[in-house]
Write a structure and sequence with these properties.
The radius of gyration is 13 Å and the shape is globular. It has one domain: 3-Layer(aba) Sandwich (Aminopeptidase). 26% of the residues lie in helices and 38% in strands. The chain is an alpha+beta fold. It has a five-stranded mixed beta sheet with strand order 1-2-3-4-5. α1 links the parallel β4 and β5. It contains two helices and five strands.
Length: 96
């Protein structure tokens, strides 16, 4: 089952948040660096596990970063690293 996920940046808390039916379902925490963004950690609420929330969060977060056009991504989060390995079309966003 795949949930309908909306991802928004919450710069005050330095995280991208995933919402399902208006409820916070998960987030990816980040830090801004000089010319970049470091993805630190991703969590999905237990109630939304297995519904594609984490994958939707990773994809929409990276799409938002790409649309910004300014930032290179450093990923410390194991979940997002694994997602990126399965989606090579997003490799251009990452710092080598």
């Amino acid at each position: 089952m795949s949930a309908d996920v909306e991802v928004r940046d919450n710069p005050e808390q330095r995280r991208f948040e995933a919402y399902v039916d208006g409820k916070l379902a998960g987030f990816s925490a980040y830090d801004l660096t000089d010319g970049g963004i470091m993805i630190l950690h991703t969590e999905v609420d237990d109630a939304f596990e297995g519904q594609g929330v984490g994958s939707a969060l990773a994809r929409q977060m990276l799409d938002l970063i790409r649309a910004d056009g300014e930032l290179k991504v450093t990923v410390l989060c194991p979940f997002v690293n694994a997602w990126l390995r399965r989606h090579p079309d997003y490799q251009d966003l990452t710092r080598r």
